[in-house]
Amino acid sequence: MFFEVSVNLVRGKQSPDTHLPRATTVGEEYRRKDAWVPMERTRRVLAAKASRHSLKTDLEMLTMPGVLVDEEEELGEPIVRCCREARESCRRGSLTPSLTPNERRLRELVHMGAYGAAINHTAMLLSFHGQGRGRQGHPTIHTPQSLQLWYIRIALLVKTKSLAVAQAEAQPFSQLEKPDIFYQYYPEMYGGRTGSMASFSFRLLLAELPMHAGKPKDALRRLFCMWAAIKRMLNNLKQGVCEDGSATELEETDRAESLKLWRSREAKVIYSIINCACYVKDYGLAMELLAQLIEREDTPKHMLLSALGRLNLQTGNIAGAEICFNEAYLFGSSGVRELVDRGLFATAQGNFEEACACFQQASSLDPSNLMILNNWAVCMLHDGRMQEAISVLETAIASKPLENLHESLVLNLCSLYDLQSSKKGIMKKFALLRQISKYSADAPTTILEKLYG
Amino acid sequence: MEAEEHLLALKVMRLTRPTLASPLPVTCDSKDLPGNLLNNVLQQDPTAVPGSETIAIGQFLLLPQNPVNIYLGETFSSYICVYSETTQIVYNITVKVDLQTTSQKLSLANNSSTTKLNSDETVNTVIHHEVKEIGPHILVCEVAYQNSAGVLMSFRKFFKIQVLKPLDVKTKFYNAENDDVYLEAQVQNITNGPICLEKVSLDASHLFNVTCLNNTPTGESIFGNITLLQPQSISQYLYCLTPTDKLSSDLKSLSGATNIGKLDIVWRSNLGEKGRLQTSQLQRMSPDFGEIKLSITELPNFVVIEELFTFKCKLANNGERTVEFILYLENTRNIAWCGISGRKLEALPPHSSKILEFKCIPLVPGLRTLSGVKLVDTFTKRTYTYDELGQVFVILSTKTSS
């Protein structure tokens, strides 16, 4: 995670000796990573399992997922989708389509950005686990591997904006609260291992999912529940017991590691809440949480201050934004970061000439930065220089078409073409479409609409 | 629109503030099946902010993809592009932009002519106009030019704009006993997005001095650092207006002073889009003082039971003749007066006032009303009764209270 990475970087500079190698037992690490406090009903079932009481299982307490869609056509334009994969495979010459499904292949597909193919791949792999098409609603046995497959499947469905499918397939998991998601449910298989079999990332993804599917209030509620659970675990750790509250004496280093991990996970959940708050335009909540994060010791302060500044700009609080940007500068924001913030600030003031100057200067420091070129072009348009703006964007695309044919950039360029003559604009848009179909596996529908429109 | 083909094309684009695009953050742990693959994708996304990729507060400017409402008090900006669609050279191009409102026609741009336009070249005009009327507006763009044969050609295009009302301002006035006027103003956001109120201030008429009651004693705004108003939300402001000395000495003009001032409101919305509104002159109901006015000028809040206390009143003659009064003090259950009842007061000339001092003893604890003061005009025999002159809180003893 970037959050952890940036923390480590900052720490590394200050005290390079914080990462002393230490013998950690595998068990310790598993316990830490998988820890989760089950809800009361689940806890009772798990306790019964542990004491080997045979218990009549209530179907309601089972997680029974199944693939609902495994036809590529239903996920979107297959030809466009396959273009990139085909092209990449040719270049590598190492992949043939007939390979049997396995996790390595799945990783390769994700790496290539062939998300549609990867989603199909997960369907095949899940059918090996008895959770393929038509299996939703049937009892099944979960393993960490099957849950990982579900995680990657739903993550990719979200990434390709197949949100209805994502939501329908995620529904049986609810919030990963049911007993069969915990190791304790299978004592004969995992011995004394405890905690959640589903990874933290999956849990977070499922909590965020309603936001993507247009129910942000549900997402907020789920995320706050997660936050509360993590707070409880942090509290347990502070009181010297295990994450889940079981009274095992923890070694000091073990406890410190756990606190660190769960604090960083807490921050991730807070980030998600901030995103959700921004999505529903509850800027007050987003600002409050960002301010809380800034107060924490283990966070990249200047990045967060800069984000808070931009959030203030978004709401229209220009004076507040200026304070944040100045403070970010004091905490080490410099160079491109500072120039971009200044450019955005000038944009918000309506001073597009100044904004152009900032982005131009930033671009001279980092010439290949697409975001800067794009922002420069947008400000040029406001400054009455449409044709220069078009040429900046066209040059950027021509220099690195694979990377730079980005959805948002294409949308901006199309708006500029719209302002040009209709005949010429349409021709140029078709040329863009050809380029996108050549390079991009998953052309988002918004772009296609804009291009055909 | 004329059927004839033109050598020039005209396109108009409304310029509103861009939005900040950001990627959809989907992440994984290094221990998850995809390893860091999803994180890498996110990091490489040009709309992600390096170092804070997982926060969806972007920095990538995106031109608005959907029509944006325009509100009264905002600045309407547009890009007007005239583009040569021909291989011919076109001469003496002029672009005229007017805005037709329901009441008037405004000229927004009248470009001096561009002498010559080659193929694929453009004439660019950016207009800005602060919108001052609600309702339909029509943007009229007129292009005139000469073709290569020197023939004068022209065409016009019309664009309709609907200007909406952004804020709803409701006011209430309270005329206080001491001639102060309290103004309560409710500002409601009726746009479809959150707005940030940058400034709300009362430009008072010169007859009043304003005290803004929206700050804490330490000078901070009671709304916090930022006054963010969600759609339909209301922010409430309170102001106290004190009449200037000159005004309060003259009851007649005080009563006639109904113009309070104007509210000046500045707000910003998406990425600093600015709007400004000033209300029309706010009017209060003119207070009716009548010919004679008796009002408290000094009165303690707390008094001790069975201990003498003093308060002062101002007796003002607002009429055109000199009046003489007899002052009667009637004891009530709660209060015993200490003074002479039935005493004749000094004659009070027109448009003058004097301070009267009263002494009394509270008899019953609790919140008590001062009543029982009566003035009788010796000439007209008219009686003025003051049964709710003011209130005091009667306490048992200073020791228990402190």
Descriptive notes:
Chain B: Residues 6-163 form the Trafficking protein particle complex subunit 13 N-terminal domain. Chain B: Residues 167-287 form the Trafficking protein particle complex subunit 13 middle domain. Chain B: Residues 300-394 form the Trafficking protein particle complex subunit 13 C-terminal domain. Chain B: One of its GO terms (cellular component) is TRAPPIII protein complex. Chain B: InterPro entries: TRAPPC13, TRAPPC13_C, TRAPPC13_M, TRAPPC13_N. Chain A: It comes from Dendroctonus ponderosae (Mountain pine beetle). The complex is a heterodimer of chains A (453) and B (402). Chain A has helices spanning 2-14, 26-34, 40-50, 78-92, 103-112, 115-128, 144-159, 163-170, 187-190, 200-212, 216-238, 252-279, 283-295, 301-315, 318-330, 335-349, 352-365, 370-382, 386-399, 401-404, 407-419, 422-439, 445-452. By secondary structure, chain A is mainly α. The radius of gyration of chain A is 25 Å and the shape is globular. Chain B is mainly beta and 402 residues long. Chain B folds into four domains: 8-14 and 66-164, Immunoglobulins (Immunoglobulin-like), CATH 2.60.40.10; 23-58, no CATH class; 167-283, Gamma-adaptin ear (GAE) domain (Immunoglobulin-like); 292-395, Immunoglobulins (Immunoglobulin-like), CATH 2.60.40. Chain B is built from four helices and 31 strands. Chain B has helices at 37-44, 245-248, 251-256, 398-401; strands at residues 8-14, 19-21, 60-62, 70-71, 75-84, 90-100, 105-110, 114-117, 122-130, 135-146, 152-164, 167-175, 181-189, 195-204, 208-212, 228-229, 234-243, 259-268, 274-278, 282-283, 292-298, 302-304, 309-317, 325-329, 335-337, 343-344, 352-362, 366-370, 373-377, 383-386, 390-395. In chain B, the strands form eight sheets. In chain B, strands 4, 6, 7, 8, 10 and 11 form a six-stranded mixed beta sheet that branches. In chain B, strands 14, 16, 18, 19 and 20 form a five-stranded antiparallel beta sheet that branches. In chain B, a hairpin with a 5-residue loop joins strand 29 (373-377) and strand 30. The longest helix of chain B has 8 residues, at 37-44. The mean pLDDT of chain B is 89.
